Amino acid sequence: MQPKITVIGSINMDLVTEANRRPEAGETVLGKQFSTIPGGKGANQAVAAARIGGKVTMIGCVGEDPFGKELLDHLEAEGIIIDNMESVPGVKTGIAAITLAEEDNSIVVVPGANNLVTERMILQNEEVIANSDAVLLQLEIPLSTVVNAAAIAYQHGVRVILNPAPFQKLPDKLIDFADVITPNEHEYEELIKDYSGDLNKLKEKLVITKGGEGIVYYEKGTEIHVPGHQVEVVDTTGAGDSFNGGLAVQLAKGASFADSCHYASAVGALSVTKFGAQSGMPTDKEVNGLLKNGNKEKIEPLD
């Protein structure tokens, strides 16, 4: 059965400029290439989940502008249900202005319509949330909306997967509502520093992504390491979003936590082998091919 995943979050157009170096203040330099690429953590995760077989509904906002129409068309072409998206007049679609230079990136995000993903929208879509197998959340929309969405999912017994990025201090009640929380290493440090509750209880909800090193999660107090996969890295943008989409689909299918983590790790690994956050996201066939023929390693407790 196709698992029903509801993604509530951001949708942006990434404006990517490649140059040999960044300009100094007041300076103009010639760039090498410019691209417009669909992005936003919510949309990225929705595409990742849809590519591997999830029946994905996206809840979010765009502006009534060319970027908004293009992004909605793109989501629909990926097989994502966009009936619950809103196009807001008088507001610009969110953008991320990205400069790639000197083997690094600089990013300015303008949330635009993403700031209008409100608690009202969540209440209007309560039935969609209630009928989901999993709800996937991030932090590029107002935090109050994320808390409200998690609360409604929790009330209906729907699994909540929270990607705490970009990081901000989480209310304890949001942590309580979440079944799984997926920080990277830096977000993990901030999360445990801020948390005032039972740290051991919190850790049982965590899946910590560590880039090429793989992931770590906790099982009855034991730290478990799932090694990463050896792949040729082209672009790491969206790797974490790919991981979250993969994890949501597998957990919604009823796979074990360990198997879901290993599958999601392969999704994230394959996503870095192509340029662009969404263009590199793999299909289920590709993921299973890596798991079957790649370097699938034993899941081991860490000392």
UniProtKB/TrEMBL annotation:
It holds the Pfam family PfkB. It comes from the Bacteria. GO terms for cellular component: cytosol. Its EC number is 2.7.1.15. Pathway: Carbohydrate metabolism; D-ribose degradation; D-ribose 5-phosphate from beta-D-ribopyranose: step 2/2. Residues 3-283 form the Carbohydrate kinase PfkB domain. Requires a divalent cation, most likely magnesium in vivo, as an electrophilic catalyst to aid phosphoryl group transfer. It is the chelate of the metal and the nucleotide that is the actual substrate. Substrate binds at N12, M13, D14, G40, K41, G42, A43, N44, E140, D241. It catalyses: D-ribose + ATP = D-ribose 5-phosphate + ADP + H(+). Keywords: ATP-binding, Carbohydrate metabolism, Cytoplasm, Kinase, Magnesium, Metal-binding, Nucleotide-binding, Potassium, Transferase. K(+) binds at D235, T237, S271, K274, G276. GO terms for molecular function: ATP binding; metal ion binding; ribokinase activity. The active site is at D241. InterPro entries: Carboh/pur_kinase_PfkB_CS (IPR002173), PfkB_dom (IPR011611), Ribo/fructo_kinase (IPR002139), Ribokinase (IPR011877), Ribokinase-like (IPR029056). Its cofactor is Mg(2+). PANTHER family: RIBOKINASE (PTHR10584:SF166), SUGAR KINASE (PTHR10584). Catalyzes the phosphorylation of ribose at O-5 in a reaction requiring ATP and magnesium. The resulting D-ribose-5-phosphate can then be used either for sythesis of nucleotides, histidine, and tryptophan, or as a component of the pentose phosphate pathway. Belongs to the carbohydrate kinase pfkB family. Belongs to the carbohydrate kinase PfkB family. Ribokinase subfamily. This is Ribokinase. It comes from Lentibacillus populi.
